[in-house]
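Cross-check.
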Amino acid sequence: MPLLLFLRFPGVFTAIADVLAGYLIVRFSGAGEGNTRALVFAILASCCLYMAGMAWNDVFDFEDDKKNRAERPLPIGALTLTGGFLIAVTLTFAGLLFSMAAGMNSFLVACALICAIFLYDGVLKKVEILGPISMGACRGLNLILGMTAHGFIVILLENPILYVPPIIVTLYIAIVTCLSSLEDPLPAFGSSIDEKIKEEQVPEYPSDVETVCEEISVERTGNMRAILSEESPVVAPESNVSPISELLASIVKIFCVIAMIIVPFVALYFMPHRPVSTGIFIVTALILVTGGIRVIKNGGHIPVRRMVGLGITCLILLNAGFVASLSSPRAVALPLFDRVFHVVSPTIEEFAGIFLVILLIIPTLILRKRISIT
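Predicted model, tokenized:
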């Protein structure tokens, strides 16, 4: 279980949805049947690189997580830092090997994706604007990885509409990443001074060694129970947070929630209109509205964390909407009240592709109940 939490395993299915959607977008836009073998290797590469990105994130944030996210596997000691590093390296090389098997174009995109991962985890994560954009670029490149797996790359140059899904995905994940920065409690006003005073104080060592060992054991047991679910609250010490910081955090929180809800309508505006895609985008927006209401109404860090998890999960529906938008127009007559209405409907094959993407939301939701996706 700690390993699955370390790799944010529920999110793997959202990565699969990216690649599958990218492949189907190219296929349904007129490129014809692609290379199924390349698709399988591209999915494997995406899974490895997604988990590698999560692993590198925790390796780079080890010191920071000891203060703000002590329930994670590395700070709690469920996994060692060396072990986490080796897992990250192994998954990165595995992703490269699988992308090579998918084809040269997929390999080049995977190399760009790895660069984006290191750029975010190691350099830009704490940088405003650039950090969320770099994280969004990782998701956009993952969608392009699926496009390159199809094999018919010329259509990417001939059909500019195919660039819209990666751009919208990049924008959407950038917003979700911006919101995720509010998952952790805000630093207390004057907390840096308090920490400095504590460092200068001489610690008092208890005389009973067995008591110390017992306290450490109890603490680790409690933390291990806390990391099993993203809904488990992280108990933070009471602190006086600056009113200005609270106001700015509330403004950013509301802005991110509204922006997340708007993104499906942006996709609906720029993508070709199909009844199925319109329904998917509207349902996605409604789901985000329900999560956004809880965030704005209740506040706190737990609703924010749940909203971030919901936002990542809804990426699967966005991908399904993109696939439905690029389905071939086919008029179907529907007799109603002695009149015939003509609607545009996807073929059975396209319906199967759309359904397959949406189906990936089921394992994501099931695993999210036990393992945090954020």
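Confidence is low (pLDDT under 50) at residues 188-239, 331-342. The chain has one domain: 2-186+226-231+240-368. Passed to J.P. for a second look.
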